[in-house]
Structure to design on (251 residues):
C-alpha cells in the first residue's frame, strides 16, 4: 500500500525538527588552558642565620733543588729514513757525552722522535726531511750545568734551555693547603666576632687554582708567607693557593 505524500512530508519535517532541537541543546565546545604559577618563595624569618663567605690565600716559597737541562738534537736529510737514523745516532752520542760529566743514567731521558718535511718557502717544493729528538738531563748539582751544556753542544744539540724546580712538590702543596685553610678560618672567626655572630657549619669549600697549581701565582687576597733562605741559582720558587669557604652563621 502506498502512503500518502502528505504523511511522508510530515515525517521528514518532524525528523528535521527533532535533529535541530538536539543540536541546540548540545554544549558549545570550549578550550581549557591550565596555568600553574610557582609558589612564592618563603621570606626569610627575622634572625635566621645566613651564609658567610671568606677567602684565605697562602704562598710558600721554597729553594729549587733540581735543575733540568732540555736539549734538542735536530738533523735534516734528503731521506726521511736517513734523517731518523742520524738523529737517533746523535741522541745516543749526546747521552754518552752527558754521562761523562757525572750525570747518572737514571737522570737522563730521551724523548720521542719528531719527523717533518721541509718545503721551499716560495715554490712549496719538498726539499728534505727534519728529524728531532729531545733529551732531558736532571741534576741536583747545579755546578754540573755548564760542563753538561758544553758536552751536549759538542754532541750536536741545536737547542738548549734550563729550568729549576722543587723535587718534593706534593709535600709543599699539602703544607700550602693547610696554611690557606687556616688563614680562611681565622679571617672568618674575626669577622663573625666583629658582627656579633658565631660560625656555624661549613656549606662549601672552593680551592683555586685547584689541581693545576701554579708557580709564582699572584692573588689579591691576604697572603701568608714563610721565609726561606736565598736560592743559590735563580729565584725562589713559590706555590700559591686560595681557599674560599662558606659558613653558616649562628647567633
Amino acid at each position: 500500500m502506498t502512503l500518502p505524500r502528505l504523511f511522508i512530508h510530515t515525517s521528514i519535517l518532524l525528523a528535521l525538527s527533532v535533529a535541530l532541537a538536539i543540536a541546540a541543546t548540545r554544549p558549545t565546545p570550549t578550550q581549557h588552558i591550565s596555568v600553574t604559577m610557582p609558589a612564592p618563595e618563603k621570606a626569610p624569618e627575622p634572625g635566621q642565620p645566613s651564609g658567610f663567605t671568606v677567602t684565605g690565600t697562602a704562598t710558600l716559597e721554597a729553594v729549587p733543588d733540581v735543575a733540568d737541562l732540555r736539549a734538542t738534537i735536530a738533523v735534516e736529510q734528503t731521506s726521511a729514513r736517513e734523517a731518523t737514523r742520524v738523529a737517533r745516532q746523535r741522541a745516543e752520542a749526546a747521552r754518552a757525552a752527558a754521562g761523562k760529566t757525572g750525570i747518572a743514567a737514571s737522570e737522563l731521558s730521551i724523548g720521542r722522535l719528531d719527523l717533518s718535511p721541509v718545503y721551499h718557502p716560495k715554490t712549496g717544493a719538498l726539499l728534505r726531511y727534519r728529524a728531532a729528538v729531545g733529551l732531558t738531563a736532571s741534576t741536583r748539582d747545579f755546578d754540573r750545568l755548564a760542563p753538561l751544556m758544553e758536552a751536549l753542544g759538542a754532541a750536536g744539540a741545536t737547542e738548549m734551555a734550563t729550568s729549576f724546580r722543587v723535587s718534593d712538590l706534593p709535600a709543599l702543596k699539602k703544607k700550602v693547603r693547610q696554611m690557606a685553610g687556616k688563614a680562611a678560618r681565622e679571617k672568618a672567626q674575626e669577622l663573625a666576632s666583629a658582627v656579633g655572630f658565631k660560625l656555624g657549619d661549613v656549606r662549601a669549600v672552593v680551592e683555586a687554582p685547584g689541581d693545576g697549581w701554579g708557580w709564582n701565582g699572584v692573588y689579591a687576597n691576604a697572603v701568608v708567607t714563610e721565609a726561606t733562605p736565598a736560592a743559590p741559582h735563580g729565584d725562589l720558587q713559590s706555590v700559591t693557593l686560595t681557599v674560599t669557604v662558606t659558613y653558616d652563621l649562628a647567633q
Summary: The helical segments are 5-25, 80-99, 145-154, 169-195.
